[in-house]
Each structure stands twice: as structure tokens, then as C-alpha cells.
Amino acid sequence: MKLSPLVQELIDNLKHLPGVGPKSAQRMAFHLLERNRIGATKLANSMAKAMEHIGHCRTCRTFTELEQCDICASPKRQASRLLCIVESPSDILAIEQTGEFIGRYFVLMGHLSPIDGIGPEELGLDQLQNLLSSDEFDEMILATNPTVEGEATAHFIADLAGSYDVSVTRIAHGVPVGGELGYVDGNTLSHAFSGRKKL
Amino acid sequence: MKLSPLVQELIDNLKHLPGVGPKSAQRMAFHLLERNRIGATKLANSMAKAMEHIGHCRTCRTFTELEQCDICASPKRQASRLLCIVESPSDILAIEQTGEFIGRYFVLMGHLSPIDGIGPEELGLDQLQNLLSSDEFDEMILATNPTVEGEATAHFIADLAGSYDVSVTRIAHGVPVGGELGYVDGNTLSHAFSGRKKL
Ligand SMILES: [Zn+2]
Ligand SMILES: [Zn+2]
Known about the structure:
Family (chains A, B): Belongs to the RecR family.
GO molecular function (chains A, B): DNA binding; zinc ion binding
CATH topology of the largest domain in chain A: Dna Topoisomerase Vi A Subunit, Chain: A, domain 2
Bound molecules: zinc ion
Keywords (chains A, B): DNA damage, DNA recombination, DNA repair, Metal-binding, Zinc, Zinc-finger
Pfam families (chains A, B): RecR_C (PF21175), RecR_HhH (PF21176), RecR_ZnF (PF02132), Toprim_4 (PF13662)
CATH architecture of the largest domain in chain A: 3-Layer(aba) Sandwich
Protein name (chains A, B): Recombination protein RecR
Oligomer: homodimer
Number of domains of chain A: 2
Mean pLDDT of chain A: 91
């Protein structure tokens, strides 16, 4: 005896969520059906809308449904002449929470990983070079994750930037080695920014 | 600086999922946007459809989009004259996996909990009494959870069944006390069924 097709389909599809296996997918499905149909319907609508309409900022590549994100569109940020390179949109959130960086970002959406077929093109490095050649920036701060891949990516980008008139810095290793930037507390991140070193 | 409205809305709505807080909602949203838009779109469609179309079996109250579930509609099950009372649809799945019970179910969708306003009516006990008076069953097996509330609910239903010509049994305490039925291994559940005692 099996579950009805629609119930089974819901459970199967919940497994698309990261970190959700068969048992928790089942628990989630029954919980939503039993106790939160309104919330689940809102989630379904908002997820469908998000997947259809959210693209990437044409300048920094972060997620947005607009052509350009709020940060790239801000005159105050445009005046700063500082560009911070991060691996993921969640890193922007973590850095913004420190309140200490008033500049612009460029989101790689990953790090170099030849084994997964992720090279310079996938990280949008052509687009980054266009930004660097625009003469809008004095300094590029490499804030990739303090992991082996993040370091390798930072060095690759630093080499690439040699052809442009921009100084290249790396956030200090106040950030714990081996961790992910999005999980670092604000205080540590502040120190990492203020202690940044010229590469 | 904030996230774009659609991204923020997706993160907020992901918090409707049980066990998902702000940090994991954010992680889920970025993961889906970055790596699994097709899966997320399928999930959104299937969730919307499920919330709209899945109701309760008119006989046993389990979740189904049909008027009657497969188990209630099965002639083999109808011939068995055994009725098993469980708290939740996931308990049916656990019991079916043992392959040892060929009978029908009645799903309470909870247990008696006066403090939460859950009384006999919320558990569908009127409907259960209709079933008992139909003379379709010789035995009713109480398979509510081996918790304080599950025991209290089992005793309440046993008392109620006194007016009907049906013998009432409780699954044996092979099941670990204080646990939830849906998480018990099949072997333990088999023993609990075969060791059931007349109440
Ligand atoms: Zn942008
Ligand atoms: Zn049924």
C-alpha cells in the first residue's frame, strides 16, 4: 500500500531542498498538510515567482529581479571606488551587516573548480575585467572564502588584475581558515576588513 | 542594503517549513536559485497542487486527493474485520512496512490535548463510532503513540468502544516508551503487533 500520488509527489519534490532526505521530506509534507496549508500555499507561489523572475544584477551578478541591484544603483556606492569580490550573495549580507564597507561588490557565484567545470568564464571574470577597465575603482578587495579553493580563486583574480590600474587587497586572515564567509560573526569580519593586506 | 523583494519573500516563506530558521531559509533560497531552479519550480507546482487538492479519506481520515484511500477501497482489507487506530498518516506507512497487518486504519490526526483545544470531535471520534457501529470489525487495535497523551487517548477510545460489539486491544509495549511511532524500526513494530493485549 502506497501514499496517494499527490502526497508522494509532494514528498519526492521536497527532497529538492538542500539537506532534506526522505524522512524529513515526509515529516515536512504531513506537517504542511495538517497544520500550515496557508503558509505552504504562500511558499509555493513565492517559489514559483522567484524561480521565474529572479535573475542576476547586470553589474555585480547578485540575485535580483531588477536589471541592477540596489547597491550597484546607489550613487553613494558608485562614488566609493572600492570593489569587493565575494563568492556568493550570502557573503554580501554578512559583510553589509558589519556596516563597515561602503563600496560595491562583484559576486563570482562560486570559486574556481576545474574538476566541476567551473573556470574563469563561469565566474564571470570577463565581466569583472570590463568593470576593472572602466576606471571606476581604485581598490579591489578579494573577500573569497578562506578555503583552499577561495585562496586559489583570489590569487587567480589578483594575477588577472595586474593589467589594470587598481590596487588589489585580500581580507586579513582574521576569518577562521576552512570556514565559510557567510557563517562568520560580524566582529571577526570587521577585523578581517580593517586588517586587509596589499597583495 | 537589503535583498531584493522577491528574494526576501522567498526566504521569509521558506520559514513556513518545520525546522527551518532564518539562516537555513537563506541557505535554501540561494541554493535553489543558484543550482536547482528546475527542482524548485517542480516543488512549487506540486506544493500548490497538493495544498489545493489533498483532503482526507472519507472513511479513515488519512491524506488523499481521492474520496476514499487505496486501503479503505481494497476488498481484501474490507474483508479483514480488523481496525487499527493511529495518530498520524506516517504511522500507517511505518506499520505497512512491517507487512504484518492486513486490515484497515483510522487516523486520529493527533491525540487528545485539552490544553490545545483538541477533544473527541477534533479526532473524529463520531466518525469512528459510526465505523464501530457498522458491524464491519471484530477487533480494534489501538496503535496510538506510547506517550502519555497517546496512552490517555487509547484509554478514552477503549472506554468509548465498550458500547460496541468489538474487542479492543493495545499494541504491546515493545515500542520504546516516550518515542514516536513513525520512527520505530519495523522489527520492533512487528513484535508490538504480535504481542498485543486485550484491554
Ligand atoms: Zn549589483
Ligand atoms: Zn481511507
